[in-house]
Amino acid sequence: MRITEAAGKLGMSPRMLRYREALGLLPPVRNQGAHRRFGPDELSAVAQGVELEKRFDISPAELAFALRTLSEPAVAQAVRDLGLRIGRLQAPRRALDFEKEKALRLLQGDPRGHRRDHSQE
Hints:
Order of helices and strands: HHHHHH
CATH class: Mainly Alpha
Low-confidence stretches: none
Organism: Streptosporangium oxazolinicum
Pfam family, one: MerR
Domain HTH merR-type: 1-48
Structural class: mainly alpha
CATH topology: Multidrug-efflux Transporter Regulator, Chain: A, Domain 2
Mean pLDDT: 87
Shape: elongated
CATH architecture: Orthogonal Bundle
Protein name: HTH merR-type domain-containing protein
Radius of gyration: 26 Å
Number of strands: 0
């Protein structure tokens, strides 16, 4: 079906549907160079996007950026770096750090974290 009919079925204007397409929120066109035709898969994908926007109270642009962070490693890393810098994210603990902390606890006392009294040995 064409965009006008698809937009009507989705309860939005053709302009809003084109906007979502420009943001990358629609599946790619199957035949390059052809006009977009909307079938059940395309309608379902748009409806799923709209449902996510409502559920998480976000805009189509915010959803598009979230998808970009998931699909582009450089963008994901830049967002992660910002999150660490502003305190919204915590650096993941490395296994080596965990083992180091465990070894220090064992050297300082018993496994439960109590210090041993070496004065009576």
